[in-house]
Every structure is written in C-alpha cells, then in structure tokens.
Design brief:
CATH topology: Heat Shock Protein 90
CATH architecture: 2-Layer Sandwich
Distance between the termini: 26 Å
Strand order of the largest sheet: 1-2-3-4
Number of strands: 4
Mean pLDDT: 83
Number of domains: 1
Shape: globular
Radius of gyration: 18 Å
Low-confidence stretches: 145-150
Largest sheet: 4 strands, mixed
CATH class: Alpha Beta
Number of helices: 6
Order of helices and strands: HHHEHHEHEE
Helix content: 55-70%
Length: about 180
C-alpha cells in the first residue's frame, strides 16, 4: 500500500472518531432540551447544526473514494478548528463516468498535498473566525462552463475569507486568499 494511502486511512479514522464524538455531543444537547420539555429549543438546535453536515454529505457523493476521503478529511479537520467550509461541487463530479474519464491514481498524492496545504493555510491565518470555500469543477454560470474546464483537467479551488465585522456581507464581496490545483492535461 503506498504511503499516502496509509496516511489517508489514518486520518480518515481520526476524522471518524471526531465526527462520532461531535455527533454524540449534539445528541446529548438535544436530549437535554427534550428532557427539560424544551422541544422548540431542541428543534432550533437541530436546525443550527444541520449546515455543519452539508459539506460532508456532498463530499460523500464523490464516487472516487480516495478523492472523497481527502476532501472529507479536510472538512472534518477544519470543523475541529471551528472553521466552516462550504463545498461547491459541479454536477458531473458525482458521476462515475466523469471520474473514470479524468481521475488517475497518481493524482492522489497531489490532491493529498493540496488538501494539507489548504488546512495549513487556514490554521496559520491571523484572522479568525474564517470562512472557507472549496469549489470542485466550475459551477454553472461561471465565465467558463464546467465542460471546458473538465477538458483541461480536474479543477480544485480553495478560498479563505477573513471575517468582515459586518453583517450581511456576502463572502464573494470579501477579499479572499485562494489556492488552486488542476490535475490532468
């Protein structure tokens, strides 16, 4: 088994342990509210915790297991540090045919290094709390459509947004630090 596979398996097991711990904590809070007959507070708490799981759910849709594992590990590690990640996934990235056409096993090491770099960039930022966005492929409506980008290779873009101090300001209007990775032709 290549070295990066062993590292990734270890990190996934740690991510699973952290997720399980967080999940049990969430259920203890909900149970506490229910035991105190505060059903509305329990529902409100559940609604606030659900967005935490959206990025993980999207990462789980990626049929290429090693790529999904790298991205899921990044999401969980950022969450552990209190840094939310929004995952944007181009539609075709959850299709087997797409991955069989573009993914090569040798890309795993580059993707693993890239996600490690994204985590380090986030952890060493001087401004907290942060918002992070990881875009896989291009979204519909971008200047270039996703098909054109996919012909050039697999496109990953990680953006790190500093806090604004203002309410209601969209992340897209903030100045972001970004690192990109394109695998393939």
């Amino acid at each position: 088994m290549p070295q990066v596979d062993k590292l990734l398996i270890g990190e996934l097991l740690e991510a699973y342990r952290l997720q399980r711990h967080d999940f049990l904590n969430h259920w203890q809070v909900v149970t506490g509210y229910l035991q105190l007959n505060h059903a509305e507070k329990a529902l409100q708490y559940i609604r606030t915790m659900l967005p935490e799981f959206e990025a993980e759910q999207l990462a789980g849709l990626i049929p290429e297991k090693s790529a999904s594992a790298c991205i899921l590990t990044l999401i969980v590690k950022l969450h552990k540090e209190g840094i939310p990640l929004e995952l944007k996934l181009a539609k075709e990235w959850n299709e087997e045919e797409f991955w069989s056409k573009y993914w090569r096993e040798e890309y795993l090491q580059a993707l693993y290094g890239y996600t490690s770099e994204c985590l380090e960039l986030s952890l060493h930022s001087q401004e907290l709390p942060l918002k992070t966005v990881l875009t896989l492929g291009r979204e519909p409506g971008d200047a270039e459509d996703s098909k054109a980008v996919n012909e050039a290779g697999l496109s990953f873009k990680f953006e790190l947004y500093p806090p604004t101090g203002e309410t209601g300001k969209k992340a897209g209007e903030q100045k972001a630090t970004a690192i990109e990775l394109i695998l393939g032709e």
